[in-house]
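Hi everyone,

Forwarding the result from last night's run.
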Amino acid sequence: MRRTALLACAALLTGLLPLTTAATASGADDPAPVPVDRFEGEVPFANPPAGGIFTWGSDTDDPPTLALTARDDAPEGAKVLSGTYDISGYGGFTHDFAFAEPAHDWSAHQGIRFWWDGQNNGKKIAFELKDGGANGEASELWTTSFTDDFTGWKQIEIPFADFTYRTDYQPVGGIDHILGLTEMWGYAVTLPVGVKGEFAMDAVELYGRADQSLRASVRTDSAVYPVKEGGTAKVRLTVATTGEAPIDEPVTVAYETSGGTASDADYTPVRGEYTFPAGTASGTTHTLRVPTRKDRTAESAETIPLKLTVTGAKAPTETPQVVIDAHGLPYLDSRLPVSKRVTDLLSRMSLEEKAGQMTQAERGALTNAGDIAAYDLGSLLSGGGSTPTPNTPEAWAKMIDGFQLRARATRFQIPLIYGVDAVHGHNNVVGATIMPHNIGIGATRDPRIAHETGAVTAAEVRATGIPWDFAPCLCVTRDERWGRSYESFGEDPALVEAMETVIQGLQGRADGRDLDRDDKVLATAKHFVGDGGTEYGSSTTGTYTIDQGVTKVTREELEAVHLAPYESAVDRGVGTVMPSYSSLDLIGDDRGPVKMHASADMINGVLKGRMDFDGFVISDWAAIDQIPGDYASDVRTSINAGLDMIMVPYAYQDFRTALIDEVRAGRISERRIDDAVSRILTQKFRLGLFEQPYADTSGASRIGSAGHRAVAREAAAESQVLLKNSGGLLPLKRSQKVYVAGSNADDIGNQTGGWTITWQGSSGDITPGTTVLEGIRKAGGDVTYSKDASAPTAGHDVGVVVVGETPYAEGVGDVGNGHDLELSAADQAAVDKVCAAMKCAVLVVSGRPQLLGDRLGKIDALVASWLPGTEGDGVADVLFGRRPFTGQLPVTWPKTQDQLPINVGDASYDPQYPYGWGLTTLTKVPQGGTLTLKGLGIAARAAERAGAKEAGRAIVTKARLLVQQRIGQDITASAAKPFAEADHLLLTGRYGAAVDKLTAAYKAA
């Protein structure tokens, strides 16, 4: 799924220079305007912590272009800030004041204004202020907007009183919720989405004199106050001032319960007035009480708006609502079977409420938190990098609880189901336990460790209030040029199926009975189906080369390779399935490529029909937009194809409206809607969300705990694949002097890869963990580290060069899209220098095989380390012999890029290292020849007949180690092909045939 985002950064300005021409003051007694930005070149384009203007966006192509342009019609001076934009997610620009300089005091002024060159496109443009905090990236955000519904230059005046506190995103999670104006750090502009346009801006300045009555505000501690029937709601009113000074004049709040769905019989009406006298300190509170009555009648939830009329201060942005909880209705009875609860609730819902349940929005895209109730939204998600700030478990739980509170204001109080891409641990949260990516888990060949990593992930995700994980990826990667290769367990569907124990780690037992536990989450099998088989060059998404492209296969290949893992996932009770962005082109059906999100044959026919999948189908990120046709057609086609919930990050309002219109027009049946909503509600009931919608943080202390990191460390150790070990260089000895070099030796961001904290991931110290270098140092020995191998190499016994890739995700990482499979020039130089000076081991930290070419002969030991996660100690464990190397290649390691795609079972197969290859240490390799293999074959068949899985696997492993020793590094095509096929046979339980293939490889060596 594509990264969503944090929506806007926000901040600005440095350097206040006088205007050459002051704008006319608003009133005779007003002070002269104070310039903030003239755009004459006095403020540079620069990133924090330096003061300056910078751009941002959700994707690489979303940040706008900016320039200081000379224009004859400039409202002030000679230049204006101009730019172009074409934004799919979010994007804009910010002016931050320099962090090293004091914040600015704007409290003496009425507001801020600027000139805007209107394009008359009717789009809203968000304008934000940064208030308080340590700097422009750690301040509160206050927002408003104006509409570009004019042509030519217009001065936009915005009183500070018009700015509201951003409830969807705060860099610091909120300081005091008061627009103080005494410590201002800048401003930001968020440009329109979905329209290609240009803009120009000039002369940002402060204007007018502060009106003391507008510097005070009254707020409530919540917008929604749920209360059980007969209980009393307590609404806390707080008076606050900019600058936190006492109020100069009295502030009066008249209050009255009025309107809503509750009647006077349901509560005691409240009406009155309260005055905060002059001199009242900022932050003073007063509590209003709204009593409700018991009538012993089963009812849906009822609302009681508390109308507030404020004199002398700004009123709350929302009218607070007391909500009498739904009660006495069958769907609320946890003793009833889930099916009966679903039937009862569904029978009560309107079409609008059902459509809302089928709608999933990105949390950062909510225009107002009240939209959750207004549109009856069923789900929110955080895409990659869409995090609260501070990015802590506590902030996650608080944020999601706030969203769940809003759902309490709906008629049936149906809880949200919140989803997140926790694809290798709770990877969005700083400090969480980050597991190896799936490619490394596949290398372990250990279903037990796959289960354990899933269990740790589930526990950490659920402890932050999230009940739904968009994992695991069950793709079968068939071309390592694919930027998502590392999300796959491997190229063999049998290996993918073997690792599906992760589903039980996430969900618990297959019947769903464990889903309401505080350490389990709903899992998602993705991306259905064939995403790993797309042809190189077939993608039409931006600059992608293979991701989201076309999978062209026969029906037989589709069934055997790509569909097989989903059949077993359904048998394991996986709760949701996500279709792929890619298209499927079945050879011989004459239909050509069909977008998976539009494939009724595959979703309704195969998944829900033949496989009898009873969970719900969730779309990928804005994926229905890729279906040919207009938006109404996209909605109609996807829903009729079998999608139950649509991920429409920034279009939730449009989608819900279109869905309702299509049903009313008869183009989508109500039966289809009821089926979709029933599936969604079923999982919500199974998760226990109706009984416990809020975060159970009792397990939060285990996030990133020593116990969880021990699981990740073990997984990292088991994932290491020893490809070459000349002269038994590994394991290292503590007595050796070790020279460590390479770009990935000491970089936690590089070793965790994409989908870590942000969508694409990033290099550097992005989250707590142990780098490979730190693990080596802790393992003992005398260690010298030189990233670029520039330090003297003399006097060392062995070198360890840790090289590989920098982070990427999805199509951004496609080969040909700015990436290849070659080591960087710096890594090549480090390998050359170290391996020329001493015995050396090269560790390749990457999401896919890297091409070593002629360097392989100069390397004594070669390790495929994959992306091991935060626990570099696990890598050191096998390097120094604390654990043996046991990993095996989950994908074929090619000699050249021209060989791609190359996979086990290919008619022509001549790799550098075959699928399943993996040397071992600390284990005596079996001796013998063909007679020994014949005996192992007899024993393997006996184990197969007896159903003795462990014995069968152990026998085949003995044969594999024996054959690997025979082959050595002289791997020929005639030996590689049966060797690789043997591992596939092992995974499918055909132990005798596996030994036969290994025997053939032995003879060919």
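The first strand starts at residue 34 and ends at 37.

Cheers,
N.
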